[in-house]
Sequence to fold (240 residues):
Amino acid sequence: MKISVIQMDVKLNAPDINFNKAKKLIKEAVSEDPDVIVLPETFNVGFFPKDIKREFCDIDGKRVKEEIGKLAKEYNVNIVAGSVANIKNGNLYNTAYVFSRSGEQIAEYDKINLFSAMDEDKYFNKGDKTVRFYLDGHPCTLIICYDIRFPEIIRKATANEPTDLLFILSEWPKVRINELTALVTERATENRMFAVCSNSCGKANDVKYGGNSVIVDPLGNILIKAEETESIITANCDIQ
Fold:
């Protein structure tokens, strides 16, 4: 399975800019003929919880479904559409959506472990269940950023059946970027699955996000890794 990871410079509270950029980068990624394209965490408004403005957030994923789901169908590609700051029933969630090649939404996940160091838990509501889905017949799961420090939720999602792919959607700061690579590798090896991480780059207020998106195989080998700037990385995951 060929996977393209979009590492995106996400602008704070600028959904029009961010959606237009995401669509442009998806179009560029399609030239690699991938089976799956992956976007980072809160690609619609960026990640700086106390400063995110609710009027710029998605509502029940309406925009991501209409604009990114449409591209999945147009390009006949599976899209793990990052996550979006998303209002549901009046509450704010960090929600990830996944679309099949037909443009159908096949998975929805609300981030379970909220990052208290940046007060995410004060402004967002947490999810209460893991997610499992299939891309071209391959069982997959996903987590969002700080979730990666809690391996038990991955085991909960994969306990009853082997899983081929773990997607990690993040806005991980540059100051701790070596931790991200280590954690992605650990989650891949302990679960014997491919781990695919899309991280953002750029800045939100005074926080510099670190890029270094990465695809790791089940033995902990790094198949490809980005640097710190906006880019697209692609690798073949030889799923047995």
In short: Helices lie at 15-30, 62-75, 120-123, 151-158, 177-191.
